[in-house]
Amino acid sequence: MIIRVFRAKVRPGKADEFERLVKEQSVPMVKKQRGVIAVYAGRPVGSNSNEFTVTSVWKDLTDITAFAGKDWEKSVIPPDELPLLEETYIHHFELFHGESQAM
To answer: How many domains does the chain have?
Structure first.
């Protein structure tokens, strides 16, 4: 399984709008993809007051590339969200331990 972590720094004053769009657009878009096991969206807590995350768990890298294309190491962002963002980051991790794994 692959963990895909998207982080976004949101422009000042745009947090509420970004959160709404993530709930309405991004999460449903990711959830309907083949191979998606889970999707979690997080708002900032503490000193990272303008940084949000969407973390998804995928069956394998093949399913991520079917979603994100050949540039799978780049963020997939709906056009309505782009003007709200200052910076984005995308990271991938292979799951080696977790409750759903046989131990």
So the answer is: 1
pLDDT tens-digit map of 15-40: 999 999 999 999 999 999 999 999 99
Q: What is the CATH number of the domain that holds 74?
A: 3.30.70.100
Instruction: Pick the closest to residue 10 from 73, 83, 77, 78 (CA basis).
Output: 83
Per-residue pLDDT band for 48 (boundaries 50, 70, 90) equals confident
Residue 73 domain boundaries: 2-94
Positive or negative: CA dihedral 54, 77, 68, 49? negative
Q: Residue 21 and residue 60: Cα distance in Å, rounded?
A: 26
φ/ψ (deg, to 5) at 60 = -160, 175
Taking the whole predicted model, whether its pTM rises above 0.70 is answered as yes
For residues 6 and 91, what is the distance between their CA atoms, to the nearest angstrom? 7
CA distance linking residue 9 with residue 23, whole number of Å: 17
